[in-house]
Amino acid sequence: MNFDFKSARHWAQALIREAVGEGGVVVDATMGNGYDTAWLCELVGPSGRVYAFDIQPAALERTRARLAAQGLSSRAELFCAGHERLREFVHAPIDAALFNLGWLPGAEKVVTTRTETTLLAAEACLALLRPGGLLTLCVYPGHAEGARELSALDAWAAALPSQEFDAMTQRFLNQTAAPPVLIAVKKQLRRNNP
Question: What is the pTM of this model?
Fold first, then answer.
């Protein structure tokens, strides 16, 4: 038998597939080149909605072109805005939010997600999550800001009240290349009895 453990992005997608279906409402907090945005548009179907954010105009244009080429434009709203501002644009409850942190693939690596704004955006997503909803964060600790984000997000997720949220992480323990780490948070359907 030949298999591998795959990646944080694969794990995040597997979890989101379980949490979101036709008609779902989701946030792509880091649209990048639009691959995740397009995948989410397919997942939610024609009656669903995807809200996607990026601060770089190039990301917005690449995503817009990708969605148009795939006939998915009507399923998404794209915002050239930092994900920490998502509450300005998203008011309805959401089924899931996906973060793929780091920098825009194929661009200069000078613009990265930032710990402070990522924490604000993650908090905003938790406030919007429906019961049973899911937040996934793929964190890339192979650069200084990514290592900072991972440390802060680990502490943030660990401190979430267990009566309201389940928080987990999936990571490789023995890799030296600092592969991405998945942090996932699920809003519980109902409170656990103490």
Answer: 0.91
